[in-house]
Amino acid sequence: MVRAVKARHQDARDVARVVQRVVDVGGITHARQCMLRYRDQALAVLHTFPDSDARRSLEGLVQLTVDREK
After folding, report:
1. 6: domain range?
2. Integer Cα distance of 53 and 20 in angstroms
3. Which DSSP string corresponds to the chain?
4. Single pTM value for the model
5. Rounded to whole angstroms, how far apart are CA atoms 67 and 23?
6. What is the pLDDT of residue 11?
């Protein structure tokens, strides 16, 4: 698996196998849970500041980062 990731000329099948393995072992689920935890921590810190355009913009950026598909 490491070899497939490090290869400069990756075969699409090798990449698909690596991606599937990450999904199968729960890597994507774990990464998403971590992301949501960081989001919650970031929003908690932002909420220690008074409401302002800047704070709302940063909150929106945090949410955009979490919600984006690519």
Report:
1. 2-67
2. 42
3. -HHHHH-SS--HHHHHHHHHHHHHTTHHHHHHHHHHHHHHHHHHHHTTSPP-HHHHHHHHHHHHHHH---
4. 0.73
5. 19
6. 77
CA distance 29 to 8: 27
Please tell me the total count of domains within the chain.
Answer: 1
In one letter, which amino acid is 18?
A: V
CA atoms within 13 A on the CB side of 2: 0
Please give the Cα distance from 30 to 23 (Å, whole number): 10
CA distance 55 to 46: 6
pLDDT in tens, 22-65: 999 999 999 999 999 999 999 999 999 999 999 999 999 999 99
